[in-house]
Amino acid sequence: MMDIESFVSFCKRRGFVYQNSEIYGGFAGFYDYGPIGVEILRNIKNEWWNSIIHQNEEIVGIEGTLITHPKVWKASGHTDEFIDYISECKKCGQSFRADHLILDKTGKKVEGMKSSDLNGLIKKENIKCPTCKGELKNSVEFNLMFKTQIGPGKGETSYLRPETAQLIYLNFKNILDTTRLKIPFGIAQIGKAFRNEISPRNFLFRMREFQQMEMQYFVSEKDADKYFEKWKKSRLKWYKEIGINNKKIRTVEHTKKELAHYAKKAIDIEYKFDFGWKEIEGVHNRGDWDLKQHQKFSNQKLDYFDEKTKKRYIPWIIETSAGLDRIFLAVLMDSYKEETVKGRKRIVLKLHPKIAPYKAAVFPLVKKDRLPKKAKEIYKKIKECFPAFYDEKGSIGKMYRRMDEIGTCYCVTVDHQTLEDNTVTIRERDTMKQKRIDVENITKEIYKNLYS
Ligand code: GAP
Questions:
Q1: Which of 68, 263, 320, 427 could form a disulfide with 259 if both were Cys (CB 3.0 to 4.6 A apart)?
Q2: Claim to verify: residue 179 and residue 286 sit in the same structural domain
Q3: pTM higher than 0.70 for the full model?
Q4: Is 13 exposed, middle or buried (0-12, 13-18, 19+ CB in 10 A)?
Q5: Among the atoms of ligand 1, which is closest to the Cα of residue 164?
Protein backbone atom coordinates (compact mmCIF):
# COMPACT_ATOMS: atom_id res chain seq x y z
CA MET A 1 0.00 0.00 0.00
CA MET A 2 1.22 3.47 -0.83
CA ASP A 3 -0.46 6.78 -0.06
CA ILE A 4 -1.58 8.72 -3.09
CA GLU A 5 0.80 11.69 -2.46
CA SER A 6 3.86 9.40 -2.51
CA PHE A 7 2.54 7.77 -5.68
CA VAL A 8 2.03 11.17 -7.34
CA SER A 9 5.64 12.12 -6.56
CA PHE A 10 6.92 8.75 -7.84
CA CYS A 11 4.99 9.36 -11.09
CA LYS A 12 6.54 12.80 -11.45
CA ARG A 13 10.09 11.64 -10.61
CA ARG A 14 10.02 8.93 -13.24
CA GLY A 15 8.33 10.99 -15.98
CA PHE A 16 4.96 9.27 -15.95
CA VAL A 17 2.60 12.12 -15.09
CA TYR A 18 3.00 15.81 -14.25
CA GLN A 19 0.55 18.20 -12.65
CA ASN A 20 -0.73 20.47 -15.43
CA SER A 21 0.50 24.11 -15.35
CA GLU A 22 2.80 23.32 -12.44
CA ILE A 23 4.89 26.48 -12.97
CA TYR A 24 1.68 28.47 -12.34
CA GLY A 25 0.85 26.56 -9.18
CA GLY A 26 -1.06 23.71 -10.87
CA PHE A 27 -4.62 23.48 -12.19
CA ALA A 28 -6.93 21.17 -10.26
CA GLY A 29 -8.27 18.20 -12.20
CA PHE A 30 -5.81 18.47 -15.11
CA TYR A 31 -2.69 16.33 -15.63
CA ASP A 32 -0.11 15.92 -18.41
CA TYR A 33 1.54 12.63 -19.30
CA GLY A 34 5.36 12.65 -19.45
CA PRO A 35 7.71 10.74 -21.78
CA ILE A 36 7.36 7.37 -20.03
CA GLY A 37 3.69 7.78 -19.11
CA VAL A 38 2.66 8.55 -22.67
CA GLU A 39 4.28 5.30 -23.92
CA ILE A 40 2.31 3.26 -21.37
CA LEU A 41 -0.89 5.16 -22.19
CA ARG A 42 -0.45 4.43 -25.91
CA ASN A 43 0.18 0.76 -25.20
CA ILE A 44 -3.06 0.51 -23.19
CA LYS A 45 -4.96 2.27 -26.01
CA ASN A 46 -3.41 -0.03 -28.62
CA GLU A 47 -4.34 -3.13 -26.62
CA TRP A 48 -7.92 -1.93 -26.30
CA TRP A 49 -8.15 -0.94 -29.99
CA ASN A 50 -6.72 -4.28 -31.02
CA SER A 51 -9.01 -6.34 -28.79
CA ILE A 52 -12.16 -4.39 -29.72
CA ILE A 53 -11.64 -3.49 -33.38
CA HIS A 54 -8.90 -5.57 -34.97
CA GLN A 55 -10.11 -8.79 -33.37
CA ASN A 56 -13.80 -8.26 -34.31
CA GLU A 57 -14.67 -7.91 -37.96
CA GLU A 58 -18.10 -6.46 -37.10
CA ILE A 59 -16.69 -3.51 -35.11
CA VAL A 60 -15.28 -0.33 -36.68
CA GLY A 61 -13.67 2.77 -35.23
CA ILE A 62 -14.36 6.48 -35.59
CA GLU A 63 -12.86 9.71 -34.33
CA GLY A 64 -15.52 12.31 -33.61
CA THR A 65 -15.24 15.97 -32.64
CA LEU A 66 -14.82 17.32 -29.11
CA ILE A 67 -17.47 19.98 -29.69
CA THR A 68 -20.73 19.16 -31.38
CA HIS A 69 -24.20 20.59 -32.07
CA PRO A 70 -25.85 21.81 -28.84
CA LYS A 71 -29.03 19.89 -29.71
CA VAL A 72 -27.05 16.66 -29.24
CA TRP A 73 -26.75 17.38 -25.53
CA LYS A 74 -30.42 18.29 -25.26
CA ALA A 75 -31.38 15.00 -26.93
CA SER A 76 -28.95 12.94 -24.83
CA GLY A 77 -30.31 14.39 -21.60
CA HIS A 78 -27.00 15.98 -20.58
CA THR A 79 -28.32 19.57 -20.69
CA ASP A 80 -31.06 18.76 -18.19
CA GLU A 81 -29.81 15.73 -16.28
CA PHE A 82 -26.01 15.76 -16.18
CA ILE A 83 -25.90 17.37 -12.76
CA ASP A 84 -24.30 16.91 -9.39
CA TYR A 85 -25.35 18.73 -6.23
CA ILE A 86 -23.07 21.23 -4.53
CA SER A 87 -23.16 22.36 -0.93
CA GLU A 88 -21.43 25.63 -0.15
CA CYS A 89 -19.94 26.38 3.25
CA LYS A 90 -21.57 29.42 4.91
CA LYS A 91 -18.29 30.31 6.63
CA CYS A 92 -15.40 29.78 4.17
CA GLY A 93 -17.41 29.75 0.93
CA GLN A 94 -15.87 26.51 -0.39
CA SER A 95 -18.13 24.24 -2.46
CA PHE A 96 -18.34 20.46 -2.10
CA ARG A 97 -20.09 17.63 -3.91
CA ALA A 98 -22.98 16.86 -1.57
CA ASP A 99 -23.11 13.07 -2.13
CA HIS A 100 -19.34 12.79 -1.51
CA LEU A 101 -19.70 14.56 1.85
CA ILE A 102 -22.12 11.83 2.92
CA LEU A 103 -19.99 9.03 1.47
CA ASP A 104 -16.88 10.35 3.24
CA LYS A 105 -18.63 10.66 6.61
CA THR A 106 -20.91 7.61 6.66
CA GLY A 107 -19.62 5.36 3.86
CA LYS A 108 -23.16 5.40 2.40
CA LYS A 109 -23.32 5.53 -1.40
CA VAL A 110 -26.11 7.93 -2.33
CA GLU A 111 -25.90 8.14 -6.12
CA GLY A 112 -29.14 9.14 -7.78
CA MET A 113 -30.52 10.83 -4.65
CA LYS A 114 -32.59 13.99 -5.04
CA SER A 115 -31.44 17.33 -3.61
CA SER A 116 -34.03 17.42 -0.80
CA ASP A 117 -33.03 13.90 0.38
CA LEU A 118 -29.33 14.83 0.30
CA ASN A 119 -30.04 17.95 2.37
CA GLY A 120 -32.04 15.84 4.84
CA LEU A 121 -29.14 13.40 5.25
CA ILE A 122 -26.57 16.21 5.65
CA LYS A 123 -28.71 17.65 8.48
CA LYS A 124 -29.43 14.26 10.10
CA GLU A 125 -25.76 13.19 10.07
CA ASN A 126 -24.69 16.68 11.20
CA ILE A 127 -22.22 16.96 8.31
CA LYS A 128 -20.08 20.11 8.37
CA CYS A 129 -17.59 21.74 6.00
CA PRO A 130 -14.57 19.39 5.76
CA THR A 131 -12.20 22.39 5.63
CA CYS A 132 -13.39 24.75 8.41
CA LYS A 133 -16.23 22.79 10.08
CA GLY A 134 -18.63 25.62 9.16
CA GLU A 135 -22.33 25.06 8.49
CA LEU A 136 -23.31 24.06 4.94
CA LYS A 137 -25.97 25.73 2.77
CA ASN A 138 -28.67 23.60 1.15
CA SER A 139 -27.30 21.86 -1.93
CA VAL A 140 -28.05 23.17 -5.42
CA GLU A 141 -27.83 21.67 -8.92
CA PHE A 142 -24.59 22.03 -10.89
CA ASN A 143 -24.31 20.97 -14.57
CA LEU A 144 -20.99 19.24 -15.21
CA MET A 145 -20.61 20.22 -18.87
CA PHE A 146 -18.04 22.86 -19.88
CA LYS A 147 -19.80 25.59 -21.85
CA THR A 148 -18.10 27.17 -24.84
CA GLN A 149 -19.01 29.91 -27.26
CA ILE A 150 -18.93 29.09 -30.99
CA GLY A 151 -18.04 31.89 -33.43
CA PRO A 152 -17.63 35.63 -32.82
CA GLY A 153 -20.05 37.93 -31.03
CA LYS A 154 -22.86 36.22 -29.21
CA GLY A 155 -22.43 33.14 -31.41
CA GLU A 156 -23.92 29.89 -30.34
CA THR A 157 -23.38 28.13 -27.02
CA SER A 158 -22.29 24.51 -27.04
CA TYR A 159 -20.32 22.23 -24.76
CA LEU A 160 -17.12 20.18 -24.70
CA ARG A 161 -18.30 16.59 -24.94
CA PRO A 162 -18.77 14.96 -21.51
CA GLU A 163 -18.60 11.48 -23.09
CA THR A 164 -17.49 10.08 -26.44
CA ALA A 165 -20.60 7.88 -26.86
CA GLN A 166 -22.84 10.55 -28.44
CA LEU A 167 -20.46 11.00 -31.39
CA ILE A 168 -20.99 7.33 -32.15
CA TYR A 169 -24.81 7.66 -32.15
CA LEU A 170 -24.50 10.69 -34.45
CA ASN A 171 -22.59 8.56 -36.94
CA PHE A 172 -24.80 5.46 -36.69
CA LYS A 173 -26.57 6.26 -39.97
CA ASN A 174 -23.33 7.19 -41.77
CA ILE A 175 -21.77 3.88 -40.79
CA LEU A 176 -24.86 1.94 -41.85
CA ASP A 177 -24.93 3.73 -45.23
CA THR A 178 -21.21 3.50 -45.97
CA THR A 179 -20.28 0.02 -44.75
CA ARG A 180 -21.82 -3.41 -45.21
CA LEU A 181 -22.31 -3.94 -41.50
CA LYS A 182 -25.44 -5.73 -40.34
CA ILE A 183 -26.78 -6.03 -36.82
CA PRO A 184 -25.15 -7.03 -34.53
CA PHE A 185 -22.28 -4.60 -35.10
CA GLY A 186 -20.25 -2.12 -33.11
CA ILE A 187 -18.68 1.33 -33.38
CA ALA A 188 -15.81 2.27 -31.11
CA GLN A 189 -13.85 5.36 -30.25
CA ILE A 190 -11.03 6.54 -28.00
CA GLY A 191 -10.88 10.19 -27.07
CA LYS A 192 -11.07 13.04 -24.66
CA ALA A 193 -14.09 13.82 -22.51
CA PHE A 194 -14.57 16.83 -20.25
CA ARG A 195 -16.49 17.12 -17.00
CA ASN A 196 -16.43 20.11 -14.71
CA GLU A 197 -16.08 17.91 -11.62
CA ILE A 198 -16.85 19.74 -8.38
CA SER A 199 -14.08 18.05 -6.46
CA PRO A 200 -11.48 16.37 -8.68
CA ARG A 201 -9.48 13.98 -6.53
CA ASN A 202 -7.35 10.89 -6.19
CA PHE A 203 -4.88 11.97 -8.87
CA LEU A 204 -5.94 10.55 -12.26
CA PHE A 205 -9.08 9.00 -10.84
CA ARG A 206 -11.38 12.02 -11.00
CA MET A 207 -10.19 14.56 -13.53
CA ARG A 208 -11.84 17.39 -15.43
CA GLU A 209 -10.26 16.39 -18.74
CA PHE A 210 -9.81 12.67 -19.29
CA GLN A 211 -9.99 9.99 -21.97
CA GLN A 212 -12.59 7.35 -22.61
CA MET A 213 -12.45 4.15 -24.65
CA GLU A 214 -16.05 3.44 -25.60
CA MET A 215 -17.74 0.88 -27.79
CA GLN A 216 -21.43 0.84 -28.71
CA TYR A 217 -22.78 -2.50 -29.90
CA PHE A 218 -26.04 -2.32 -31.87
CA VAL A 219 -28.34 -5.31 -31.37
CA SER A 220 -31.98 -6.32 -31.58
CA GLU A 221 -34.04 -6.11 -28.39
CA LYS A 222 -34.28 -9.89 -28.10
CA ASP A 223 -30.48 -10.28 -28.14
CA ALA A 224 -29.66 -7.44 -25.73
CA ASP A 225 -29.25 -9.62 -22.60
CA LYS A 226 -27.08 -12.13 -24.45
CA TYR A 227 -24.67 -9.46 -25.73
CA PHE A 228 -24.62 -7.67 -22.39
CA GLU A 229 -23.28 -10.88 -20.81
CA LYS A 230 -20.88 -11.49 -23.71
CA TRP A 231 -19.31 -8.03 -23.45
CA LYS A 232 -19.14 -8.14 -19.67
CA LYS A 233 -17.13 -11.37 -19.91
CA SER A 234 -14.98 -10.12 -22.74
CA ARG A 235 -14.08 -6.90 -20.92
CA LEU A 236 -13.17 -8.79 -17.73
CA LYS A 237 -10.91 -11.07 -19.76
CA TRP A 238 -9.13 -8.04 -21.26
CA TYR A 239 -8.02 -6.79 -17.85
CA LYS A 240 -6.37 -10.15 -17.26
CA GLU A 241 -4.74 -10.01 -20.68
CA ILE A 242 -3.07 -6.67 -19.93
CA GLY A 243 -1.69 -8.13 -16.72
CA ILE A 244 -4.00 -6.76 -14.02
CA ASN A 245 -4.31 -9.02 -10.98
CA ASN A 246 -7.84 -10.42 -11.33
CA LYS A 247 -8.26 -10.64 -7.54
CA LYS A 248 -8.33 -6.85 -7.65
CA ILE A 249 -11.10 -6.69 -10.24
CA ARG A 250 -14.80 -7.16 -9.46
CA THR A 251 -18.16 -6.26 -10.93
CA VAL A 252 -20.95 -4.47 -9.11
CA GLU A 253 -24.46 -4.26 -10.56
CA HIS A 254 -26.35 -0.96 -10.30
CA THR A 255 -29.50 -0.98 -8.23
CA LYS A 256 -32.68 0.43 -9.82
CA LYS A 257 -32.05 3.70 -7.95
CA GLU A 258 -28.47 3.99 -9.18
CA LEU A 259 -29.28 3.37 -12.88
CA ALA A 260 -28.65 6.36 -15.15
CA HIS A 261 -31.71 7.78 -16.93
CA TYR A 262 -30.82 5.91 -20.15
CA ALA A 263 -29.92 2.50 -18.69
CA LYS A 264 -31.93 -0.72 -18.47
CA LYS A 265 -29.11 -2.60 -16.77
CA ALA A 266 -25.57 -1.63 -15.78
CA ILE A 267 -22.52 -3.03 -14.08
CA ASP A 268 -19.39 -1.25 -12.93
CA ILE A 269 -16.07 -2.98 -13.34
CA GLU A 270 -14.13 -1.95 -10.25
CA TYR A 271 -10.43 -2.08 -9.35
CA LYS A 272 -9.18 -2.24 -5.78
CA PHE A 273 -7.07 0.93 -5.66
CA ASP A 274 -5.05 1.78 -2.56
CA PHE A 275 -7.89 4.25 -1.82
CA GLY A 276 -10.64 1.62 -2.14
CA TRP A 277 -12.71 -0.30 -4.73
CA LYS A 278 -13.55 2.14 -7.52
CA GLU A 279 -15.15 2.05 -10.96
CA ILE A 280 -12.82 1.91 -13.96
CA GLU A 281 -15.39 0.86 -16.59
CA GLY A 282 -19.12 0.49 -17.05
CA VAL A 283 -21.01 -2.03 -19.18
CA HIS A 284 -24.51 -0.76 -19.92
CA ASN A 285 -27.65 -1.95 -21.63
CA ARG A 286 -28.92 1.41 -22.92
CA GLY A 287 -32.02 0.01 -24.62
CA ASP A 288 -33.19 2.05 -27.65
CA TRP A 289 -33.10 5.30 -25.69
CA ASP A 290 -30.20 7.01 -27.49
CA LEU A 291 -31.21 6.46 -31.10
CA LYS A 292 -34.87 7.20 -30.27
CA GLN A 293 -33.89 10.50 -28.69
CA HIS A 294 -31.70 11.52 -31.64
CA GLN A 295 -34.41 10.47 -34.08
CA LYS A 296 -36.89 12.63 -32.21
CA PHE A 297 -34.64 15.70 -31.92
CA SER A 298 -33.17 15.53 -35.45
CA ASN A 299 -36.32 14.39 -37.32
CA GLN A 300 -34.14 11.89 -39.17
CA LYS A 301 -34.92 8.18 -39.35
CA LEU A 302 -32.42 6.22 -37.28
CA ASP A 303 -33.98 2.79 -37.58
CA TYR A 304 -32.63 -0.40 -39.06
CA PHE A 305 -34.16 -2.60 -41.75
CA ASP A 306 -33.84 -6.29 -40.97
CA GLU A 307 -33.63 -8.10 -44.32
CA LYS A 308 -34.58 -11.45 -42.82
CA THR A 309 -37.76 -10.39 -41.03
CA LYS A 310 -38.45 -7.43 -43.40
CA LYS A 311 -39.11 -5.32 -40.31
CA ARG A 312 -37.77 -1.93 -39.25
CA TYR A 313 -36.75 -1.24 -35.67
CA ILE A 314 -34.59 1.06 -33.54
CA PRO A 315 -31.59 -0.98 -32.40
CA TRP A 316 -30.77 -1.49 -28.74
CA ILE A 317 -27.29 -0.61 -27.54
CA ILE A 318 -24.84 -2.46 -25.34
CA GLU A 319 -22.12 -0.07 -24.28
CA THR A 320 -18.67 -0.73 -22.85
CA SER A 321 -17.31 2.53 -21.46
CA ALA A 322 -13.81 2.52 -19.99
CA GLY A 323 -11.79 5.37 -18.48
CA LEU A 324 -8.29 5.32 -19.94
CA ASP A 325 -6.67 7.38 -17.17
CA ARG A 326 -8.27 5.24 -14.47
CA ILE A 327 -6.98 2.10 -16.18
CA PHE A 328 -3.52 3.70 -16.48
CA LEU A 329 -3.59 4.35 -12.72
CA ALA A 330 -4.77 0.81 -11.99
CA VAL A 331 -2.05 -0.67 -14.24
CA LEU A 332 0.64 1.38 -12.52
CA MET A 333 -0.53 0.72 -8.96
CA ASP A 334 -1.02 -2.96 -9.73
CA SER A 335 2.48 -3.43 -11.10
CA TYR A 336 4.32 -1.28 -8.53
CA LYS A 337 6.38 -3.49 -6.19
CA GLU A 338 8.94 -2.73 -3.52
CA GLU A 339 11.40 -5.54 -2.84
CA THR A 340 14.50 -5.95 -0.72
CA VAL A 341 17.47 -7.17 -2.73
CA LYS A 342 20.77 -7.75 -0.91
CA GLY A 343 19.59 -5.48 1.90
CA ARG A 344 18.58 -2.65 -0.43
CA LYS A 345 15.15 -1.48 -1.58
CA ARG A 346 14.33 -2.16 -5.21
CA ILE A 347 11.30 -0.49 -6.82
CA VAL A 348 10.10 -2.39 -9.84
CA LEU A 349 7.11 -1.98 -12.13
CA LYS A 350 6.13 -5.50 -13.08
CA LEU A 351 4.21 -4.36 -16.14
CA HIS A 352 2.90 -6.81 -18.70
CA PRO A 353 5.44 -6.81 -21.58
CA LYS A 354 2.77 -5.46 -23.95
CA ILE A 355 2.23 -2.46 -21.67
CA ALA A 356 5.88 -1.82 -20.72
CA PRO A 357 7.18 1.47 -22.24
CA TYR A 358 10.46 -0.10 -23.35
CA LYS A 359 10.94 -3.77 -24.14
CA ALA A 360 14.72 -3.52 -23.68
CA ALA A 361 17.51 -1.19 -22.58
CA VAL A 362 21.10 -1.42 -23.78
CA PHE A 363 24.16 -0.34 -21.76
CA PRO A 364 27.92 -0.53 -22.31
CA LEU A 365 29.66 -1.90 -19.19
CA VAL A 366 32.13 0.96 -19.33
CA LYS A 367 32.26 4.17 -21.39
CA LYS A 368 35.48 3.22 -23.18
CA ASP A 369 37.22 0.45 -25.18
CA ARG A 370 34.76 0.66 -28.11
CA LEU A 371 31.94 -0.66 -25.89
CA PRO A 372 29.60 2.37 -26.36
CA LYS A 373 29.95 2.02 -30.17
CA LYS A 374 29.07 -1.68 -30.07
CA ALA A 375 26.22 -1.04 -27.58
CA LYS A 376 24.74 1.63 -29.88
CA GLU A 377 24.87 -0.79 -32.81
CA ILE A 378 22.92 -3.37 -30.79
CA TYR A 379 20.48 -0.70 -29.55
CA LYS A 380 19.85 0.39 -33.15
CA LYS A 381 19.12 -3.19 -34.14
CA ILE A 382 16.64 -3.70 -31.27
CA LYS A 383 14.80 -0.41 -31.76
CA GLU A 384 14.01 -1.34 -35.33
CA CYS A 385 11.73 -4.02 -33.85
CA PHE A 386 10.73 -2.74 -30.38
CA PRO A 387 10.76 0.47 -28.36
CA ALA A 388 14.17 0.44 -26.66
CA PHE A 389 16.32 2.70 -24.51
CA TYR A 390 20.05 3.45 -24.51
CA ASP A 391 21.91 4.50 -21.38
CA GLU A 392 25.54 4.94 -20.39
CA LYS A 393 25.12 7.33 -17.45
CA GLY A 394 26.09 5.74 -14.14
CA SER A 395 27.06 2.32 -12.87
CA ILE A 396 25.37 -0.82 -14.22
CA GLY A 397 23.57 -1.22 -10.87
CA LYS A 398 22.10 2.31 -11.11
CA MET A 399 21.06 1.81 -14.72
CA TYR A 400 19.30 -1.46 -13.79
CA ARG A 401 17.37 0.31 -10.99
CA ARG A 402 16.28 3.13 -13.30
CA MET A 403 14.97 0.61 -15.82
CA ASP A 404 13.22 -1.48 -13.12
CA GLU A 405 11.36 1.63 -11.93
CA ILE A 406 9.89 2.28 -15.37
CA GLY A 407 9.17 -1.37 -16.11
CA THR A 408 11.70 -2.06 -18.91
CA CYS A 409 11.48 -5.81 -19.61
CA TYR A 410 15.13 -6.59 -20.38
CA CYS A 411 18.51 -4.98 -19.78
CA VAL A 412 21.22 -5.88 -22.26
CA THR A 413 24.82 -5.27 -21.17
CA VAL A 414 27.65 -5.04 -23.65
CA ASP A 415 31.08 -5.94 -22.22
CA HIS A 416 34.58 -6.84 -23.45
CA GLN A 417 33.53 -10.42 -24.24
CA THR A 418 30.91 -8.99 -26.66
CA LEU A 419 33.73 -7.66 -28.82
CA GLU A 420 35.26 -11.13 -28.95
CA ASP A 421 32.30 -13.49 -29.42
CA ASN A 422 29.25 -11.26 -30.16
CA THR A 423 27.39 -12.33 -27.00
CA VAL A 424 25.76 -10.08 -24.36
CA THR A 425 24.34 -10.43 -20.87
CA ILE A 426 20.55 -10.18 -20.84
CA ARG A 427 18.81 -9.55 -17.51
CA GLU A 428 15.13 -10.21 -17.00
CA ARG A 429 13.29 -7.53 -14.99
CA ASP A 430 11.10 -9.57 -12.62
CA THR A 431 13.48 -12.41 -11.71
CA MET A 432 16.69 -10.38 -12.20
CA LYS A 433 18.12 -13.58 -13.69
CA GLN A 434 20.93 -13.06 -16.16
CA LYS A 435 22.11 -15.17 -19.04
CA ARG A 436 24.51 -14.84 -21.90
CA ILE A 437 23.06 -14.91 -25.38
CA ASP A 438 24.17 -14.33 -28.93
CA VAL A 439 23.40 -10.81 -30.18
CA GLU A 440 21.66 -12.44 -33.16
CA ASN A 441 19.07 -13.94 -30.77
CA ILE A 442 18.13 -10.82 -28.76
CA THR A 443 15.07 -9.75 -30.74
CA LYS A 444 13.81 -13.36 -30.86
CA GLU A 445 14.14 -13.59 -27.04
CA ILE A 446 12.23 -10.31 -26.52
CA TYR A 447 9.57 -11.32 -29.03
CA LYS A 448 9.07 -14.65 -27.21
CA ASN A 449 8.48 -12.82 -23.93
CA LEU A 450 6.09 -10.33 -25.49
CA TYR A 451 3.79 -12.85 -27.10
CA SER A 452 4.14 -15.95 -24.90
N1 GAP B 1 -20.99 6.78 -21.98
C2 GAP B 1 -21.17 6.33 -20.66
C3 GAP B 1 -20.34 7.02 -19.68
O4 GAP B 1 -19.69 8.00 -19.97
P5 GAP B 1 -19.60 6.98 -17.19
O6 GAP B 1 -19.76 5.92 -16.15
O7 GAP B 1 -20.07 8.36 -16.85
O8 GAP B 1 -20.33 6.42 -18.48
C9 GAP B 1 -17.40 5.94 -18.14
O10 GAP B 1 -18.07 7.06 -17.62
C11 GAP B 1 -16.00 5.83 -17.59
O12 GAP B 1 -15.29 7.06 -17.78
C13 GAP B 1 -15.95 5.56 -16.09
O14 GAP B 1 -16.06 4.19 -15.79
C15 GAP B 1 -14.57 6.11 -15.74
O16 GAP B 1 -13.59 5.11 -15.96
C17 GAP B 1 -14.36 7.24 -16.73
N18 GAP B 1 -14.59 8.54 -16.07
C19 GAP B 1 -15.78 9.13 -15.82
N20 GAP B 1 -15.60 10.31 -15.20
C21 GAP B 1 -14.26 10.46 -15.05
C22 GAP B 1 -13.43 11.47 -14.48
N23 GAP B 1 -13.95 12.59 -13.97
N24 GAP B 1 -12.08 11.31 -14.48
C25 GAP B 1 -11.53 10.18 -15.02
N26 GAP B 1 -12.27 9.19 -15.58
C27 GAP B 1 -13.61 9.33 -15.60
A1: 263
A2: yes
A3: yes
A4: exposed
A5: 1
